[in-house]
Every structure is written in C-alpha cells, then in structure tokens.
C-alpha cells in the first residue's frame, strides 16, 4: 500500500505547547514540519534548530504566506487565537487551533465563518477528544453499558505559582482557570449531553481579577446534570465519572490526556438481585505525548476532503464557547453586584 501524501505543517508560536506538538509530529511518517513562525526571528531560528524545521520566519504573516505549508497549528496564547487563525485562513491554510478556540463565542464565530467562506479545514485542538481511550468510552456508552446516563462529575486543576505577568493570571491574555483548564470538563459535559438548559457557576477571583477557581453546575434536558470544577491555584481530582442507572465509567486522571477507564457496574437498591460483574479497568496508551492523535485526525479529514472533523465540529466548538461565555457572565455579574451568581443558559442575556 502506497504511503499517503505527506502533509506539510507550520507551527505558529514557539512556546511549550508548540514544542510538544513539534515532538508529536516527528512520530508521524505522513506529516512534515515545514515551517515555524514567531514574532521574534531569534526564537523562530532556535525552535527550528531544536526540532529540525526547514524554515523559520520572524513574523506570523510570513509563515501564513509560505506556499508549501498546508495546515498551521496555532500555538499562541488564548488572546491571539482569533487574529492568528484568521490570518492563516485568509492565506489559504487549514487551521488546527489550540484550545480554547477563542476568548468568546463572537470571536469563534468569526473564525468558523472565515473557514467556511474559504472552504478550508478548521478544528479546535481539544487534546483529550482524540486519544484512544475515548473511543473505548464511546463504545461502552453506545452499548448502554451503564444504562441511562444521568450525571457527570469532572474536574481539572493544576497549581500555578502566582505571577501576575504569567498568561494564566493575566486578564488581557485570557487568563483564568475556566479558559485554560475548565474548557476540558465543560467540553466533556457538552459532548455527553448537548446544550445545557441552565448554568450555575461560582468563581474565586484572584488579585489580578482572573478566576482562580471555578465551580459549575450544568443542567440538561430530562434531568441530566454535570458538576464541574477548574483551578489554577490547587490540584483537583483531574478525572471524570460518567454516572448511569446501571453503573459508572471512571475516566482516570489526567482528564486532559487520559489513558485509563474503569467500568463499575451497579444495580438498583431493592431491584432484582442479579449478579454483578466486578469492576473492569482497561488502558489504551497514547502515542508519544498524545498530541499526535490531533494531527492524525486533521490529516485524515484533509485527505478525505472534509472541512470539519466529526469528532470536533465547529458547531460543537461554538457551543463550548457560548457555554463558557454564560458561565463567566454568571460570576462576573456576581462579582460586580455582590449578589449570589444566577443561572443562565448559553446565549441568554
């Protein structure tokens, strides 16, 4: 069988996430890392030397104009995602944009519209969406392994040393627990249950004004609920429990790149006294650091002529951003008025 056409990548940005993605691409024989772009030529040159990149550009625009680059991975801080993605799309490049897609739903809609206008592939790089264990989770849910799925408990929290200049604590850079880490449990909940009907959230705002920890309750049709948490000041459980009428599927930590799933069967108290199978745990290792699975999906879609991935559609990305907007609106209003946060639905207000 012939080797598929090698798709040429560009990486926009030279930070830690860009380095990890470059390492992931090296594991894929059908992916070529053609160019890197930075606002600093020195940074681009150093990155290119470290990762064997053929071309280094001292501006984002020069990378976007490279005629041999087919798809660009956007690896810049959150507040730059909109402009960087639009730049690449305008110059005819497919886009894989690091999560969160943008700062808000309005920005996200601009990118989605531009991708559709240009007829170009575009996808949010939601790390955990593409790892192998998620296919195992999907298969068990589709088979009804835990009955009627009613609830989700999920969290992601990592302790960052406080530094007001760090992007996580800088409001102008889209800092805060929700955008940086909370997007994982939020996207997981929407993946399970769809659009929430009511949102309740509470946040602890730090001295720079960003949300340092957030607690979220999402209500969905037919009484389904998700209880979610995110923090940049302390470690949380960093896992997910999908709870049904006949059991639990426990996705072990780390939630952002899981490899292990445990199925815990249960039965109703007072119901039929049927034998229960013991809990069963399975592991599906990720390739390298896990980012390669995103690239594999992008290239599969591009080769098949798809403009979106069925695993992470633009419609779902925009719903995530709408939901994040509503989550923030609830506690930002509370912070201004001193009143308890109110529930809200995406697009409400």
List the topology elements.
Blueprint: E1 7-12, H1 16-25, E2 31-37, H2 41-51, E3 55-57, H3 60-65, E4 71-74, H4 81-90, E5 94-98, H5 105-118, E6 122-125, H6 132-142, E7 149-157, H7 177-193, E8 198-205, E9 211-219, E10 225-231, E11 240-244, E12 247-251, E13 260-265, E14 280-283, H8 292-303, H9 314-337
Helix pairs in contact: 4-5, 5-9, 7-9
In short:
Residues 7-123 form the Gfo/Idh/MocA-like oxidoreductase N-terminal domain. The protein has helices at 16-25, 41-51, 60-65, 81-90, 105-118, 132-142, 177-193, 292-303, 314-337; strands at residues 7-12, 31-37, 55-57, 71-74, 94-98, 122-125, 149-157, 198-205, 211-219, 225-231, 240-244, 247-251, 260-265, 280-283. The protein is an alpha/beta fold and 349 residues long.
């Amino acid at each position: 069988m012939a080797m598929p056409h090698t798709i040429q990548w560009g990486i926009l940005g030279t930070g830690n996430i860009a380095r990890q993605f470059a390492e992931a691409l090296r594991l894929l024989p059908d992916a070529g890392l053609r160019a890197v772009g930075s606002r600093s030529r020195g940074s681009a040159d150093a990155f290119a030397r470290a990762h064997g990149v053929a071309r280094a550009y001292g501006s984002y625009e020069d990378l976007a104009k490279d005629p041999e680059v087919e798809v660009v991975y956007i690896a810049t801080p959150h507040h730059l995602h909109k402009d960087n993605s639009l730049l690449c799309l305008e110059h005819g490049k497919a886009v894989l944009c690091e999560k969160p897609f943008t700062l808000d739903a309005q920005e996200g809609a601009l990118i989605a519209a531009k991708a559709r206008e240009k007829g170009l592939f575009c996808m949010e790089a939601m790390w955990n969406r593409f790892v192998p264990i998620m296919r195992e989770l999907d298969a068990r849910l589709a088979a009804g392994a835990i009955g009627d799925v009613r609830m989700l408990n999920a969290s992601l929290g990592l302790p960052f040393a406080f530094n007001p200049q760090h992007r996580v604590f800088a409001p102008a850079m889209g800092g805060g627990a929700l955008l940086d880490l909370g997007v994982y449990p939020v996207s997981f909940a929407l993946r399970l249950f769809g659009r929430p009907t009511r949102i309740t959230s509470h946040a602890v705002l730090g001295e720079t004004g960003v949300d340092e920890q957030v607690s979220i309750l999402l209500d969905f049709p037919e009484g389904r609920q998700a209880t979610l948490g995110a923090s940049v000041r302390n470690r949380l459980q960093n896992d997910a429990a999908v709870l049904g009428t006949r059991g639990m599927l426990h996705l072990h930590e780390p939630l952002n790149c899981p490899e292990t799933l445990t199925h815990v069967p249960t039965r109703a108290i007072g119901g039929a006294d049927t034998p229960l199978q013991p809990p069963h745990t399975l592991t599906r290792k990720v390739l390298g650091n896990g980012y390669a699975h995103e690239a594999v999906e992008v290239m599969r879609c591009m080769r098949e002529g798809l403009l979106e991935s069925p695993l992470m559609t633009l419609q779902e990305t925009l719903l995530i951003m709408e939901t994040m907007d509503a989550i923030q609106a609830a506690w930002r209003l509370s912070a201004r008025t001193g009143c308890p946060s109110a529930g809200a639905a995406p697009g409400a207000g």
